[in-house]
Each structure stands twice: as C-alpha cells, then as structure tokens.
Design brief:
By secondary structure, this protein is of the alpha/beta class. The protein contains nine helices and seven strands. Helices cover 58% and strands 14% of the residues. It binds adenosine-5'-triphosphate. The site of adenosine-5'-triphosphate has 15 residues, from helix 1 and helix 6.
Length: 201
C-alpha cells in the first residue's frame, strides 16, 4: 500500500482537504478520531495510561477526557508522557488499517505526524498550509475559543516552516487559491507514483 500523510497546523484545513480526497475515492485514516476510540478499546494502551496516570482517568471503564485535560493542562511533561503512550499505538493501528486498504494509495491525517515520528513510515507527506491569523479566526469561531487560547495551541505545534521541510507536496488553504484543483493535481501525481511503486514490486 502506498502511504500518504496529510499534516498541518491546527485550523489549517487538514480535514477539509481530506474530505476532498475522500470524494475522489481515496480512503482516509483520521488519527485524532481513531486515537479517541483507542483510549477505550486498546487494552494495552489503557493499561499503560492507568499505570502512568492512575485509575481515576477512567470512569465506568470509559476514558475520562475532562479529567485527563485537567492533568495535562499547563503541564507539558505530562502531555509529552501521554503522547509517548498514545502515538505508538495509533501508528500500529494506522499501519494495520493501511494494510487492509485496496485503493492504489491511502491517506493518514494527523496534526502531530512529524513530532510522533510517524511521517517516517509514509511514502509521501502533504502539508496543508495557512497563515496563522486565518487559522486563529477559523478555530476560534469553530471551537468557540478566545484567540489567545488558539495561539497557545498553535505555539505548542511545530512551526509551518519546519513542517514544510518535511513535506513533499503543499496545499495552500488561505482562501485565495481554490482547493479542489490543488487536490486534483496532487491526486494525479500520487496515482502515478503509487502505480510505479506497484510495478516495481
Ligand atoms: P484541526 O487541526 O483543529 O483538526 P484542521 O486542520 O483539520 O483543524 P479543518 O477542521 O479542516 O482544519 O478547518 C478548520 C475550520 O476552518 C473548519 O471550520 C473549516 O470548515 C474551516 N475552513 C477550512 N478551510 C476553509 C476554506 N478554504 N474556506 C473557509 N473555511 C475553511
């Protein structure tokens, strides 16, 4: 399976771009959505989390997101610890999912693709880029957050310039360029690359 990643900062438009790829028939793995399910369904992960954070982060056998949010709020070490437990499990789960796909290529969408090391397992990486001021506006209206709070989240992520160094393709989502033609152009190239890879094997 030819594996493609889509990354970008918060509010850059990763999900929006992935929806267009889905319309073109490409299967997409949304890492955040799947990670949320793994907190409850992956027993190995659950044991690790309880070992490091205590039983109280699960109530009635369900992961207590609010409790965890209180623990990691303003505590970067605890956040890093949580990520170090969750990321390897999501990488494994995504790899299993990738193996089951039958389209010529499949996409994994994740905000922390480069930080988690999972971009190394991909054949190509697409960056969705957008200036910070537009991202603040989008996320504060989508999630009803103060712009300052959005900025705090943005500052916890890798800067766009660093993500760009790792990316093979870039989709500019600053509302001045149309998204669909950009996605279509990359889709054609990916189909070609995936076919070339298949012929070599
Ligand atoms: P997150 O990292 O928070 O998951 P994301 O990168 O997946 O965000 P989206 O959820 O796709 O970003 O987009 C953020 C918000 O901006 C959404 O409300 C979306 O509808 C809006 N948005 C994205 N792209 C555009 C665009 N080109 N024009 C107008 N609104 C947009």
């Amino acid at each position: 399976m030819y594996k493609v990643g889509i990354t970008g900062g918060i509010g850059s438009g990763k999900t929006t771009v992935c929806k267009i790829f889905e319309v073109l028939g490409v299967p997409v793995y949304y890492a955040d959505v799947e990670a949320k399910k793994l907190y409850d369904n992956d027993y190995e992960l659950k044991d690790l989390i309880i070992h490091h954070f205590g039983k109280e982060v699960y109530s009635n056998n369900k992961f207590d997101r609010l409790r965890m949010r209180e623990i990691i709020y303003n505590n970067d070490d605890k956040l890093a610890l949580l990520n170090s437990l969750v990321h390897p499990r999501v990488i494994l789960h995504a790899n299993e999912w990738m193996k089951q796909q039958t389209h010529s290529y499949a996409i994994k969408e994740a905000a922390l693709m480069i930080e988690s090391g999972s971009s190394k397992e991909l054949d190509k990486l697409i960056l969705v880029s957008c200036p910070v001021d537009i991202r603040i506006e989008r996320v504060s209206s989508r999630d009803l957050l103060a712009p300052e709070e959005v900025m705090v989240r943005i500052e916890k992520q890798l800067p766009e310039e660093i993500m760009r160094e790792h990316a093979d393709f870039e989709i500019v989502n600053d509302e001045s360029l149309l998204l669909i033609p950009q996605v279509e152009a990359i889709h054609s190239q990916l189909l070609m690359l995936a076919n070339q890879q298949r012929q070599q094997h």
